[in-house]
UniProtKB/TrEMBL annotation:
<dbReference type="GO" id="GO:0005737">
    <property type="term" value="C:cytoplasm"/>
</dbReference>
<dbReference type="Pfam" id="PF05822">
    <property type="entry name" value="UMPH-1"/>
</dbReference>
<keyword id="KW-0479">Metal-binding</keyword>
<keyword id="KW-0460">Magnesium</keyword>
<dbReference type="GO" id="GO:0009117">
    <property type="term" value="P:nucleotide metabolic process"/>
</dbReference>
<keyword id="KW-0546">Nucleotide metabolism</keyword>
<keyword id="KW-0963">Cytoplasm</keyword>
<dbReference type="GO" id="GO:0000166">
    <property type="term" value="F:nucleotide binding"/>
</dbReference>
<dbReference type="GO" id="GO:0008253">
    <property type="term" value="F:5'-nucleotidase activity"/>
</dbReference>
<protein>
    <recommendedName>
        <fullName>5'-nucleotidase</fullName>
        <ecNumber>3.1.3.5</ecNumber>
    </recommendedName>
</protein>
<dbReference type="InterPro" id="IPR036412">
    <property type="entry name" value="HAD-like_sf"/>
</dbReference>
<dbReference type="InterPro" id="IPR006434">
    <property type="entry name" value="Pyrimidine_nucleotidase_eu"/>
</dbReference>
<keyword id="KW-0547">Nucleotide-binding</keyword>
<comment type="similarity">
    <text>Belongs to the pyrimidine 5'-nucleotidase family.</text>
</comment>
<dbReference type="GO" id="GO:0000287">
    <property type="term" value="F:magnesium ion binding"/>
</dbReference>
<dbReference type="InterPro" id="IPR023214">
    <property type="entry name" value="HAD_sf"/>
</dbReference>
<keyword id="KW-0378">Hydrolase</keyword>
Length: 285
């Protein structure tokens, strides 16, 4: 029995099925487990002290030396496309072309900008990005138990990695798949590989097969995310293991809840902690 699953803000479509999955993961043990998690507003909080937590993109945009054309352009794209991403009345399929357009236009804005790691590190401090309560202890225990953690982010990989390092949780069992800058002579000339957005993580997961092949014996997964697109991050996992999906839902809760319950086994409503995840880890590790 896991008391954290009985809290008021926990929703499950089928509690028996959830408990069966957890039991199987416990029985198979930590050597068969891997973790796949989104970063922005999954590892980081959705809000803290009444303020919405900045995403990795927004952290980058706070660098004071960036040209005004960049920050204004990024803000106007955000204003246009974010409400489409968060629209509960559109299907994921309907949103995909808009997300592709957003990311393509965004990439063009970055071209030619200077890349400076010190400025990114300072922007992280200034932005006060806060991780969910209990994240540090979860990551430490996963490291000590040698359980691989994939941080799978449609944000800016350089910023996500720097935030993990800032909080001393980028252990050697943590691997980041994200949008990493291609830098030549100190200037950003684009991104490495295919652009990763919130709704193409399934395709990207399948294309990341080298990572998942190496972890083939680890066929059980605990997956965490805050977007419907995050539910498909485990599609590259090998074998017929058990995949337990935890979804964090913080906005438009009533409208989105039915869709989240279809995609995630456990849905946590406006929860800014890792309490449920840690309670499950307590049983496995």
């Amino acid at each position: 029995e896991i008391p954290e699953l009985n809290k008021d803000n926990v929703r499950m479509k089928d509690k028996d099925d959830v408990l069966k999955k957890i039991e199987r993961i416990i029985t198979d043990g930590k050597q068969k487990l891997q973790i796949i998690t989104d970063f922005d507003r999954t590892v980081s909080k959705y809000h803290h002290n009444g303020e919405t937590t900045k995403s990795s993109y927004c952290v980058f945009e706070t660098i004071p030396t960036l040209p005004k054309e960049f920050t204004d352009g990024a803000q106007s794209l955000y204003n246009k496309f974010r409400k489409i991403e968060d629209n509960p009345n559109m299907t994921v399929e309907e949103k995909i072309p808009y997300m592709e357009e957003w990311w393509d236009l965004n990439e063009k804005l970055f071209l030619g900008l200077p890349y400076n790691e010190k400025e990114i590190a300072q922007a992280i401090i200034d932005s006060e990005v806060t991780l969910r309560d209990g994240t540090d202890s979860a990551f430490l225990r996963l490291y000590l138990s040698e359980v691989p953690v994939l941080v799978f982010s449609a944000g800016l990989g350089n910023v996500v990695s720097a935030i993990l390092s800032h909080y001393n949780i980028k252990y050697n069992n943590v691997h980041v798949i994200s949008n990493f800058f291609k830098v030549v002579q100190g200037k950003i000339i684009g991104f490495e590989g295919t652009l990763l957005h919130v709704f193409n993580k399934n395709q990207y997961a399948i294309e990341s097969c080298d990572y998942f092949k190496e972890l083939a014996p680890r066929e059980n997964v605990i997956l965490m995310g805050d977007s419907l697109g995050d539910a498909s991050m485990a599609e590259g996992v090998q074998g017929n293991g058990c995949i337990l999906k935890i979804g964090f839902l913080c906005i438009n809760i009533e409208q989105f809840l039915p869709q989240y319950l279809e995609k995630f086994d456990i849905v946590l409503l406006d929860d800014q902690t890792m309490n449920v995840f840690n309670a499950i880890l307590n049983k496995i590790l």
